[in-house]
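Q: What does the predicted 3D structure of Peptidase M61 catalytic domain-containing protein look like?
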Amino acid sequence: MNRRQVLGVIVGGVAAACLPSIAVSAQSYDDARDVYAALRGRPDLKLAIGGGDIFVVFAEGSSALDRDRVAAWIQRSAVAVSTYFGRFPVQRVGLLVIGGEGDHVGPATTYGMESSAMRLHVGADASEAKFRNDWVLVHEMVHLALPNVPRRSEWLLEGNATYVEPIARAQAGQITPQEVWRWAVEDMSKGQPGPGDEGLDHTHTWGRTYWGGAMFWLLAEIAIYEKSAGRYRLQDALRAINRASGGNTTYWEVEQVLAAGDAAVRLDVLMALYNDMKDRPVHVDLDHALQQLGISEVDGDIRFDDGAPLAALRRSITAAPPRG
């Protein structure tokens, strides 16, 4: 399953990445109250990663799952997110794993109500390769890092998870930089405004929510690097937002989120971009941005130009961050 097949829904302030219809267990835990109730029981597994505790509960009917394989998948995803944010984004999260028929990995849903929680659907026939290549769980774990915002601005969170997920996996050595930028080259243009667009806060289509939001964060990445003369990265701003907010159980206005990020990089980049893009359609010159980064696609291959003006930024985005 690739990223172009993802469908987004926002229900009651809950962010979810949903895949096409699959066979799941008899109880799908569609109601968040059922998810939280299940997670109040004794966990089947506890993982301590990046300073956070992950309490895993296998739902009734999940006996056919390879629990070691599922645990390795959760750990690998958590390592990627912890690499990007410098720690696991929340102190603790409950994960409800729901087994079903088939070889699917996902869908998954992240909740930030009474505590951080996640619901994961997994097919009993999912292969090791399926787990290893999965991006859905990392996308959902990125949602743990930022506070909830008003529903009109869900693009800020979905776009952030869409943008950060492949970068986090690359920084952890799980995928190549070419895989990261292939999604930008082939998919990000789906976030451009169409007829009747009224800006990111008022146009809630799939493309604008996920890829329009991702373009916002790409522009922020470039602007922070250029205006700080290479001193800061978007990663610095996002880490600061995570630490100040404590993650997805907090509710902040968008302005508070962006102000925290701007303060960390000593600029007014995020608020300026938001004011520019929230209420009006802004067509992003994506081809130029990718050219400046030294990214192109030739005969299906992603190629890099290390002589491009922003090649150093491109390399740093997917490089493993220094320890300490």
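A (community wiki): The structure tokens above were generated from the sequence. Residues 4-26 have pLDDT under 50 and may be disordered. The radius of gyration is 19 Å.
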